[in-house]
Amino acid sequence: MRRAFVIASVVAGSVGLTGLVRTGEARSPRSHEIERLQNHFDSVAVELNQRDIASLTTTQRAKRATLASWLREYRAAGVFPTNDRFDTPTPFFRD
Hints:
Helix content: 55-70%
Number of strands: 0
Structural class: mainly alpha
Radius of gyration: 15 Å
Order of helices and strands: HHH
Mean pLDDT: 81
Largest sheet: none
Distance between the termini: 17 Å
Oligomer: single chain
Low-confidence stretches: 14-21
Strand content: under 5%
């Protein structure tokens, strides 16, 4: 599985979700979107950590750990694609 495909799939799946908004702060729509995505990835990490992985093989656990690590790195970097096709969060794929 290619890293870029995995990351793009996660981003596309998170586009319609609502993030947390701090009140009283003037922020750009882009900074709000970055925070929203980071909050989403934080919730995904929590969900991943709560899953029972006892039935996975050693190879599956290793691959899962690698993918979770990529997701943490991607979230921490905060460099996400910009949706320049729609005014509201709308999932779409670019080829």
